[in-house]
Amino acid sequence: MTSQQTDLSFKLLSLLSKERAVYGLRNGDHERYRRHCANKIHRLRQVTGTTCGKGKVYKAPAQIDIGTIKDIKHLQLLVFSAERALAHSHELKALKAKTHNIKRDQISWLRRGLKLSTQLYDLVQSLSSSSDGMALKVDQRTLAEVTIYHLTIRAEVAFERSNWISALSDLAVRRRLLTILAEGAKDSYEEALATEFIDAQDPLIRFCAYKLGRPESHDIEGVMKDVDEEVMEEALPGLKKLTEGLRGETGVEEMEQGRKRLEDVEFAGEKVELRNAEIVAVMVRVQEVLNKLAEGKKSRTKGKGGKGMKSWDRVLSVLGEAEGVARKLLEDHESSGSSTSLRSARTAQALSLAHQYIIYLLLTHRIQRDLALVETLSSSCPSLPSDPTTFKIAGGKARVEEVIKTLGGVIKLFDTVLQSLRQASGLSVVQEKEGVRGGVEGLEAYYHATKCYNLARLHCLHPAPSHGSAIQLLSAAALSIRQAKSYLVEPATPLEEIIVTLTPSEIQSLEANIASLDSAAKRALFAEKIDKPVFFDMAFNYVDLPIEELEVQAGKREKVEQSAVGAVAEVAGASVNKVVESVKQRGTREATPAATRDDDEEVSHGAKGGEGKKGWLGGWFGRGK
């Protein structure tokens, strides 16, 4: 008969956490979550056949009891009905203008949620205590989670009514059950889920303890110790039986040994708290892929081969997903209105630290992936000379092109490494830790020197070499390698969270290569012979150069000294000579040409006119002459 029983067990806390996070409660949007719950209820009623009918006459839906339950969806219908009532109550509570009617409606919706949760609790309790002859059953974990949900709503109702003793006793029982679930969790996700629900109601416990006159209300553990077992048993009859059944079912003692849990995370000696279930779930995956990557490195070291870049891509993909989850949680927490309380400030600080740590982890493995690509690319080009002072590549044009292409790819990879290092140095957790900041800046200086060194080699090995540019790059590389030595070889503070381990011999080897390449580039620069252009001498055929002045400036002829008077006389004589020469060039002046007939007539007419008009006024004076 036991094998024919239908198991209606489900994970209520996980369901609530996902639904609330996705549909608005993470941002404090109670209206959106209420509408989602209404849509969910409508779909569940259609599936279970508990609708109100489509006729004009109202038809009451069938009651959900121990006799009508056939599927797990009946229990989920009660859950989302209670969630809709809670969302409506919280939406009214969040209004700024709280009139008496709004307060009454808020309490009314809260009481409706309590009624639905009580109905759910009674049904699950009946199913858990059913005999083998019953067709349905639930496990102790489902009963515990439903009890936690019921106690949460009941404690909130008591808190709104200022019944501090009842609220504190319900919250204490709830916290006891969540602690057992955290201890018996099979993985870190379930443990973080229980921790998340514990943290959600801790402020109510502190406030109730404060109202009851406890001097140290902030001490949650002390408050829990003050609540007697009799008070808890009175708040929830059958608590002892429930806790024993839950411990036996989860196997707390055995689970501690075989638990798939997240290792403790520390950054520069500071513990990174991952109390959110979503972050813990994705960080467990990160831990798994990092362990596989470490095993792959060991197998490749032993000569067994490995997948290589696929492992790195998988690690970066999971880390990118973790960064997205952490960033989303941080943004949602900052955008929510509950950022003024002490708990909210601590939560924001923990989320910010977790987000920055995940970013640092992502950049670290991206840098290591790029360096592995550099090593693979360099080893795949045997034509590249190992001696940096060798500028000739044997094998013809094809080998030269291969070497140039390889060096170009290596330089681009070093550019990506430098970009990741600059992003890492800009993180606040890196700036606050002196040891971490020194290590990142030292690596940035070292790989900047390496990039300049490879770029200088590219200039020297190119078919059209540019030794001057190579010398400038090598001077910058020498400055960066000295800075890297000051950070990495003799640091002022011990280095922490090292991304890439560099030995002093590697730094000295790079420094020696830079110095030798610099000397070789300078020798090649001074040994260059610059050929004259093809048409260099053509200008001498058309331009008269001042040869005497050029010889004087070259020191081949002495400059003639002249006084000022002599210079003036020389200039004057030169001008006179120019005039005389111009006159000589003209030759003899031509005679005046003879007058023509027309000219003679004009002359004769002019003579006659002159005789007829004598004196002034047309000849009136002296007419008698």
From TrEMBL:
Traced from the root, the source organism's taxonomic lineage reads: Eukaryota, Fungi, Dikarya, Basidiomycota, Agaricomycotina
Q: Tell me which species this is from.
A: Kwoniella newhampshirensis
Q: So what family is this one in? A: Belongs to the SRP68 family.
- Work out whether the entry's keyword set contains Nucleus: yes
Q: What InterPro entries does this protein map onto? A: SRP68, SRP68-RBD, SRP68_N_sf
The organism's superkingdom is given as: Eukaryota
**Name recorded for this polypeptide:** Signal recognition particle subunit SRP68
Enumerate the residue ranges of region (Disordered). 583-625
**Primary localisation category:** cytoplasm
Q: Which GO terms describe its cellular component?
A: nucleolus; signal recognition particle, endoplasmic reticulum targeting
Keywords from the UniProt entry: Cytoplasm, Nucleus, Ribonucleoprotein, RNA-binding, Signal recognition particle
